[in-house]
Specification:
32% of the residues lie in helices and 26% in strands. The protein is an alpha+beta fold and 419 residues long. Helix 5 packs parallel to helix 6 and helix 6 runs parallel beside helix 7. Bound molecules: uridine-diphosphate-2(N-acetylglucosaminyl) butyric acid.
């Protein structure tokens, strides 16, 4: 068993460099299947979800060579299978991108129903609706999804909910569809734009990514031998911004895109923290106990659900009573029970939670209930009095590269122990 042992009461100070985005990489890797040759990807985070993506692609016939810790060459010349191994695809959520990519490439695919963090129901009806609009037939049974098409034809697709996954998946599937595909009520997250930029660099014709109307003019083939650098991770950036606020620290966050964090920047300033943004760097510092606030998570450019638990840590120590409304996931407050073990006073019910701010947290053994909850508990451990042990690191390792090393460089007393 592995755990992080953290001795708290630390002000985080120094510089940290942000890795490439998890949620871009795990979409762009499958999207490379549309290219029948080689792609070189830089700034790829070396995390469990990316390695799993690579394993699934290798089972389909991709040849992948890591040329450094964060770059790889993927050669999709010889894809020989349309069956993604069910034991692997069930392990994480983004395996659903294999469907869009293989539908585009081979008009046929079978995968296990995607797994991932337990944040409540995670339907894929909008993905399926999109594929069917393009002319595919989908069959979901016995934990498997089979999707096939004689040919794909561009169509107008209105997404009933704003879904990052469905927007990206249908975008990937429609690259070779005959004519024009319109995705309306599309998600606008930076990773949606990154996938579109990647596909355009291969010769796709995608316009409007980053707005709620995306237009894809079908092309017949894509180039190969391209190189592409994954966008910096918005959520990792926000994690260190909130760690600076929670610890009353001073952090210079490098290799990030400040505009992707505009919403968080405003909230940090509202609760009394300080943020200065430069071209690809954000400086965050805080000297005071944060003020109370009200937050509602929303699709981009709203407050990201994936930073809600980290903000929860900050608000658990704010002056006064704060409220968070979670509008994306049904079960994203599981971390509050863990924070309460550390002395927080949070009442969570359904998709809302009330944070009665306390002056200090204290160390306790806590369990990462999902990926972002895990990172939030690490921040809580760094600021709490005493020693915190964070268990269930498999969640954290899915999405953060070397989290303990990055926090240790900022002064945290944090060690990974393997028992
Ligand atoms: N939804 C549907 N039908 C669908 C798809 C989604 O009803 O077909 C609903 C979901 O139940 C949810 C909402 O739409 O209520 C938004 O879901 P979305 O599809 O946007 O989420 P996702 O693509 O499954 C991605 C990230 C999540 C992040 C959400 C929201 C990946 C692999 N995951 O999930 O990231 O929380 O978008 O921004 O990109 C994380 O990184 O920790 C994480 C959970």
């Amino acid at each position: 068993m592995e755990k992080l042992v953290i001795t708290g009461n630390t002000k985080l100070e120094g510089e940290v460099s942000i890795t490439g985005a998890k949620n871009s990489s795990i979409a762009i890797l499958p999207a490379t299947l549309l290219c029948k040759g080689k792609c070189t990807l830089y700034n790829v985070p070396n995390i469990v979800d990316v390695r799993l993506s690579c394993e699934i692609l290798e089972k389909l016939g991709s040849k992948i060579i890591w040329t450094s810790n964060n770059s790889l060459i993927i050669d999709n010349t010889n894809i020989h299978s349309t069956h993604a191994p069910l034991d692997l695809t069930r392990k994480f959520r983004a395996s659903y991108y294999i469907i869009g990519a293989m539908l585009g490439r081979s008009h046929e695919i079978e995968v296990g129903l995607p797994g991932g963090c337990n944040l409540g129901p995670r339907p894929i009806d909008q993905h399926i609706k999109g594929f069917e609009s393009l002319g595919a037939v989908a069959n979901l049974s016995q934990g498997k999804v089979k999707v096939s098409a004689d040919k794909l034809i561009g169509s107008n697709i209105y997404m009933d909910v704003v879904s990052v996954g469905a927007t990206i998946n249908v975008l990937i599937a429609s690259v070779f569809a005959e004519g024009t595909t319109i995705i309306d009520n599309a998600a606008k997250e930076p990773h949606v734009v990154d996938v579109a930029n990647f596909l355009n660099s291969l010769g796709a014709d995608i316009r409007g990514a980053g707005t709620d109307l995306i237009k894809v003019n079908g092309v017949k083939e894509l180039k190969d031998n391209i190189t592409y650098s994954i966008v910096p991770d918005q959520i990792e950036t926000g994690t260190f911004m909130l760690a600076a606020v929670a610890s009353k620290g001073d952090i210079l966050i490098k290799n990030c895109i400040p505009e992707h964090l505009d919403c968080l920047t405003s909230k940090i300033i509202e609760i009394g923290g300080n943020v200065e943004s430069y071209k690809d760097t954000i400086h965050v510092w805080n000297t005071r106990r944060p003020k109370k606030t009200v937050i509602k998570t929303l699709p981009y450019p709203g407050f990201p659900t994936d930073l809600q638990p980290h903000m929860g840590v900050v608000l658990s120590m704010a002056k006064g009573t704060s409220i968070i409304n979670e509008s994306i996931w049904d079960s994203r407050f599981q971390y509050t029970a863990e924070l309460n073990k550390m002395g927080a006073n949070i009442t969570a019910q359904g998709k809302s939670a009330i944070f009665e701010g306390v002056e200090n947290l204290y160390g306790a053994p806590v369990y990462a209930t999902d990926l972002r909850a895990g990172a939030a508990l690490v921040i809580a451990g760094i600021v709490a009095n005493g020693t915190t042990e964070v268990f269930n690191l498999k969640h954290i390792d899915r999405g953060y590269e070397n989290i303990e090393g990055k926090f240790a460089n900022l002064g945290a007393k944090i060690k990974r122990i393997i028992e």
